[in-house]
Amino acid sequence: RSKRRGRSQITVYSEEIAEEMRFGTEVEQALRRAIIADEMAVHFQPIVCIRDGTIRGFEALARWTDRELGFVSPGVFIPLAEERGFIDSLTETLLRKAARTAKDWPANVFLSFNLSSVQLTDPTTSLNVLAILNSVGLDPRRLELEITETAVMSDPETAAKVINELRAVGIRIALDDFGTGQSSLGRLRDFAFDKVKIDRSFISEITVDRSAEHIVRAVLAMCEGLHLMPIAEGIETPEQAAKLLELGCDVGQGYLFGKAAGADRSFAMIREEQDRLIRARERANGSES
Ligand code: C2E
Ligand code: MG
Ligand code: MG
Ligand code: MG
């Protein structure tokens, strides 16, 4: 195609690519340095019972602010680490950090962690994950790994093997961003998942677009039939929460309940909830006597 466009077009095109590559390399170097300098951070977003807001778990989300580049979105640096071949070391430092925090939460609060698509094509992933959990001392039954449809489909055989090994030690698997990938529902039967996260694009339209509501209804029915736990992503308004409850979805996350924040905030949220419970119990006891 570029041949037909002539020489000048090619020059512009390749200069753009070169510029992009230079920028990519700059970010790559900064990112590699940040990993070694232990500057990568993990934030935690609460996953709650929609009915009363009680905390079920937290999703770990990677955060990086570079001195020169400023805040860089994980939507940028995760794919870069995947492309340039160091997603393993990035994941290792992030999972280690997340697990260290999760270890100090009450045992019924789970940690949800995003696994990169590249790692589902790597047969050593389950051993690597287990080694990290062992060294930190986090019970695998408290960990949930989020994977995407696209990741599963790129190498279904290895993915199935990795998923089965992870589940064998008690780690749960959640299918992330459900509804946005290109897999067929039929193919999903071949994999053992525990949870399905309904993508934010459906939740954000659920009270305004009938078709979004119908899709969510269908996903919830599928989850019920296949014994998968549904989790709604990106709940921002009380109306969306009410609609989800009406449709039978009890668990979710979103700005309505809390944005991702530092580890300290996760402990504060857990403490506040415990205090609320204690006060409610005291009131109930007081009214009895
Ligand atoms: P994701 O796993 O689907 O994570 C949910 C994203 O939606 C997060 O963006 C979160 O901050 C955002 N979000 C949550 N609730 C709301 C809401 O109510 N409204 C809106 N507008 N957004 C909401 P974030 O942190 O920028 O992460 C983007 C993506 O980057 C993640 O999507 C995930 O695919 C990837 N990612 C983040 N951290 C990691 C990580 O540690 N490892 C890997 N492999 N991927 C990660
Ligand atoms: Mg996720
Ligand atoms: Mg998601
Ligand atoms: Mg999403």
Give your account of this protein's structure.
- This protein has 289 residues and is α/β, with parallel strands linked by helices.
- It is built from twelve helices and nine strands.
- It starts with a helix and ends with a helix.
- Strands 1, 2, 3, 4, 5, 6, 7, 8 and 9 form a nine-stranded mixed sheet that branches.
- Strand 2 (55-66) and strand 3 form a beta hairpin.
- It is globular and about 80 Å long.
- The protein has helices spanning 2-5, 7-36, 74-83, 87-102, 125-136, 149-154, 156-168, 185-188, 200-203, 210-226, 238-247, 263-288; strands spanning 41-49, 55-66, 70-72, 110-114, 143-148, 172-178, 195-198, 229-232, 251-252.
- 32% of the residues are buried.
- 53% of the residues lie in helices and 18% in strands.
- The model has no long low-confidence stretch (mean pLDDT 92).
- The site of one magnesium ion has 4 residues, from loops.
- Residues 45, 60-62, 73-75, 78, 94, 114, 116, 146, 176-177, 200, 234-236, 253-255, 260 line the site of ligand C2E.
List the helices and strands and how they pair.
Elements: H1 2-5, H2 7-36, E1 41-49, E2 55-66, E3 70-72, H3 74-83, H4 87-102, E4 110-114, H5 125-136, E5 143-148, H6 149-154, H7 156-168, E6 172-178, H8 185-188, E7 195-198, H9 200-203, H10 210-226, E8 229-232, H11 238-247, E9 251-252, H12 263-288
Parallel strand pairs: 2-4, 4-5, 5-6, 6-7, 7-8
Antiparallel strand pairs: 1-2, 1-9, 2-3
Helix pairs in contact: 4-5, 5-7
Bound molecules: ligand C2E and magnesium ion (3 copies).
Q: Helix and strand succession?
A: HHEEEHHEHEHHEHEHHEHEH
Count of runs of 4 or more consecutive helical residues: 12
Structural class from helices and strands? alpha/beta
Termini separation (Å)? 84 Å
Low-confidence stretches: none
From the spread of the alpha carbons, the general shape counts as: globular
Mean pLDDT: 92
Radius of gyration: 21 Å
- Main sheet makeup: 9 strands, mixed
Indicate the percent of residues in helices. Answer: 40-55%
Number of strands: 9
- Which small compounds were modeled alongside the protein? ligand C2E, magnesium ion
Strand fraction equals 15-25%
